[in-house]
Amino acid sequence: MASAPTHVAHEPLTGSARTWGTIALSAATFMNVLDTSIANVSLPAIAGDLGVSPNQGTWVITSFAVANAIAVPLTGWLSQRFGQVRLFVGSVILFVIASWLCGLAPNMTTLIAFRALQGFVAGPMIPLSQSLLLASYPRALAGLAMAMWAMTTLVAPVMGPLLGGWITDNISWPWIFYINIPVGIAAALASWALYHKRESVTRKLPIDTVGLALLVLWIGALQIMLDLGKENDWFHSPLIIGLAVTAAVGFAFFLIWELTDEHPVVELRLFARRNFWAGTITTSVAYGLFFGNVVLLPLWLQQFMGYTATDAGMIMAPVGLLALVLSPLVGKTVGRVDPRRYATFAFMVFGLVLWMRSNFNTQADFGTILIPTLIQGVAMAFFFIPLMTITMSGLSPDRMPAASGLTNFVRITAGAMGTSIATTLWESRAALHHAQLAETVNAGSTAAQAALSGLTASGLTTEQALAQINRLVDQQAFMLAANDIFWISSMLFLALIPLVWLTHPQKAVTGGLDAAAGAH
User: Fold this and answer.
1) Can you give the pTM of this predicted structure?
2) Tens of pLDDT along 120-140?
3) Which residue, among 343, 382, 414, 493, has the nearest Cα to 154 in the 3D structure?
4) Which of 76, 84, 250, 255 sits in a 20 to 30 Å window from 190, CA-based?
């Protein structure tokens, strides 16, 4: 499969062409990654406007992530079929159209469908932006190119909640999608102008239609099961059982088919390498934990702490400050330091941050909630680059596109699952805490009677006073449930550390980056 040439060797770009190329590719990546998190703080507004519950609103996030995960492994095949530059520019243009349709969506069903379309057409953008950027720089500067690319992908999830919150509060939520239109058009035009003469060699390869169909089937069934589970009382529902069986059987057939097909849509044989499977699993579980908590925090702040979308965005935004400062340092030194040490440090910091959050209470002020977010920036800087170095180490250039596609696919799928699991667990733990707290509100409780007397004395009826107490119990129950999830996540981050040390030590990153530069 690697015998035919898949890339014409082009000279690296120089001067202003390289600068503009970097800006154009980064803008497209920024827009793509921004859309994974921009809707997080806008969920209550979108759900309220379209007449569904905020938990049903999480479909806006998961539909994008699942469709994106399905499209990513197709990048290798599509780029060989149509050419890297044509595929990248086409992907950006289709993303702009899908964003416009998302903004126009009249109801939740249509919005979810357009978000899935947006996620699917966005699939090739990230792997190809990486590949085109590395080809624009000489080999010696590959580390710098990767650090700049990583900074874009770190800033975007941070800007998302801030931008999303401000737009939702000051304009209206459809504009979180409309802002992609001018950025996307500019990025597509600039990329085409700079790169169309550097098109990769194309060749016709057979597409693994059976593998693709099985992939869509089991991923789709699994995600729908996770999203609908809590509304249908989990495995007491025939629908959920049916989806679970479909996902399990689909996955089993998918494994068998992909391991025996000559041109598999997903190159599962890569998992035979210890660094690849340990690196991919560690990155994906960590990303799922991280993303689940990134969705949960603004939901809790807006629904139970009285924060506006803008304020919730302000709490989430500073995570990028230290990440931006430290990422170039990590990019430059990861070749000289054992990346396993960097990854271990990142997980320890993530563990600390989530432990701090697990001690929040309903009196927590803005500063208290902000401090762990600031510290989390340190963990983010030491998280992605070292783990990608470990995962890709020792792979030959012809296997890089498939490896990048596969590890991104598993990571994005884990992110979507993390969102569903975090919100589901939050609801179920809150119901448990609510029941326990409600037991203390009875005729024999002096505190409960005093609270009731105080509320009725201020002019409320007994029913209104009880409703007010129920609201307070709700607030406490959801706060305690959030604390539970933060604490569990903290322990899981620490439990990932031994997995990092299962990998073989990696001597230097430059070989991996050089390989990635010649990947396609």
Assistant:
1) 0.79
2) 999 888 888 877 887 777 766
3) 382
4) 76
